Amino acid sequence: MAGTKRPRNDENEPPLITIDAxxxxxxxxxxxxxxxxxxxKAMRDERAxxxxxxxxxxxxxxxxxxxxxxxxxxxxxxxxxSQVSNTLGAHMKELMxxxxxxxxxxxxxxxxxxxxxxxxxxxxxxxxxxxxxxxxRISDLLAPRIVGSVHI
Length: 152
Description:
Blueprint: H1 37-75, H2 81-102, H3 104-130, H4 138-142
Helix pairs in contact: 2-3
């Protein structure tokens, strides 16, 4: 004979009943409350302040990350001038990009000032080179540089 799938209950034994003595916590239900316009405005203002604070914190994190890049570059510079020159040569574009992203007006003014001083120096050197010595003519100075036979 085949066995049954369900266990057989003995009719003569009392049924096994378990009782859980710990009370179940009551479920917390949300209740709708009326909010007047002033309270609603205060809640919106509070939310706007939180959002603004979060945006400011995100911007500060971004700035910190950017300054971290610059700090890594500056930390890689050692005391010797050759290492400084090599590091600046290797990271010049990064440094200039970072400075330009922070203060473009100051970097542009500095670059213009540097170019103006360099042009002034080169102009003074060229003028000194082209100034003939005492008693010489300009044509005597330029004669060796004239290519071929140019008639003046």
